[in-house]
Design a protein that fits this description.
70% of the residues lie in helices and 0% in strands. It is mostly helical. Among the domains are: 18-122, Serine Threonine Protein Phosphatase 5, Tetratricopeptide repeat, CATH 1.25.40; 258-341, Serine Threonine Protein Phosphatase 5, Tetratricopeptide repeat, CATH 1.25.40.
């Protein structure tokens, strides 16, 4: 499996978790049996305050933030919506709802709520940049530029605005303008790590070693995130320096034993080096860390086939297809072996 550059995404998407929110304070009161409200003292305290003043929008907004940090998204969304219904003049309430809907891939709903925030406060930079991110995701680039430029007209030194502009140009495959905007973002704010990483990725993609320096700087900014180390590994793998690539992949795994991409790429290199048993072990680890990864089963199956362990190979090909029925590589492998899935 050919290694590909893995973009540093700003935004991660999940699944929709939300139910509708009824009006009225009582609909926001937690069930007494809900463990999160029984076990968390801060939540219990603020809920008591809400019971005393059920029309205080700020309390719902505050509790929504607590719930969000605790990954209780359905309850958090409900509180943010209640805050918005109780205080229709506060832009942050609408923006909070829009943010959560965006995270859970309800793009249409997210745009509507963030637009409400902008209508309440047309100069709200956060809301304009949030909606720019939405347009970027939808690949509606002129609209994204429009929102970004509103922010830059208010403040020509806004690093996030330049970063988002760089991301738009990157998606448009205009590397030169993307780099220019990321550089501006870093010049305005030298510790803007996302822009530093993007510069590392783009320069490395051009086989320019200056990209490695940006990746080093990004890692120094936050050594808990091993992505820059992984990116250096992919750089060396792309220029066919497998020995150096393995060094960085190993460094990733030492710091984060669950870093699937490093394990995966290491397995690929080992297969090319005819170290099939070692490659098998890499993919075996991946299937344990990420049991819903069809490519991991396919690659492990391919290793088994190369080791003449056909029973295990076929089992893995079938598992890959069970996870992704559109996955062509295990289909081709089964066909090659004269078997039906």
């Amino acid at each position: 499996m050919k290694s590909a550059w893995i973009g540093y995404s700003l935004i991660l998407f999940g699944v929709m978790l939300f139910a509708g929110c009824k009006n009225g304070a009582k609909s926001n009161r937690p069930a007494d049996s809900d463990p999160i409200f029984q076990s968390n003292l801060d939540l219990r305290n603020i809920t008591q305050l809400i019971d005393k003043t059920p029309k205080d929008a700020a309390l719902y907004y505050e509790r929504g933030g607590m719930l969000y940090k605790l990954k209780q998204d359905s309850l958090a969304l409900k509180d943010y919506k209640m805050a918005a219904s109780l205080d229709t003049n506060q832009a942050r309430n609408y923006s909070a709802v829009g943010d959560m809907l965006f995270e859970h891939k309800d793009i249409t709903g997210s745009i509507q709520w963030i637009q409400k925030a902008i209508n309440k406060n047309p100069t709200d930079r956060k809301a304009h940049l949030k909606i720019a991110k939405l347009f970027l995701y939808l690949q509606e680039y002129p609209q994204a530029f429009g929102e970004i430029n509103i922010v830059l007209r208010q403040n020509v030194y806004d690093p996030e605005a330049y970063f988002l502009k760089g991301m738009v140009y990157k998606n448009m495959k205009d590397t030169a303008k993307a780099i220019s905007n990321f550089l501006t973002s870093v010049q305005v704010s030298p510790d803007y790590r996302d822009a530093v990483i993007q510069l590392g990725l783009l320069y490395c993609a051009q086989r320019n070693e200056v990209g490695l320096k940006y990746l080093d700087n990004a890692f120094k900014m936050d050594s808990t995130d091993v992505f820059p180390i992984f990116a250096k590994g992919t750089y060396y793998q792309e220029i066919n320096d497998e020995a150096r690539a393995k060094e960085f992949y190993r460094a990733c795994v030492v710091r984060n034993s669950h870093y699937v991409n490093a394990l995966f790429n290491m397995g690929y290199i080992l297969m090319q080096e005819d170290s099939v048993e070692k490659a098998y072990r890499q993919y075996n680890i991946v299937t344990k860390i990420d049991p819903l990864n069809p490519a991991a089963y396919f690659n492990r199956g391919l290793c088994s086939e190369m080791l003449n362990n056909m029973k295990d190979a076929v089992a893995d090909y079938r598992q890959a297809l069970a996870l992704d029925s559109t996955y062509d590589r295990p289909k081709d492998a089964m066909k090659r072996l004269g078997l039906k899935k």
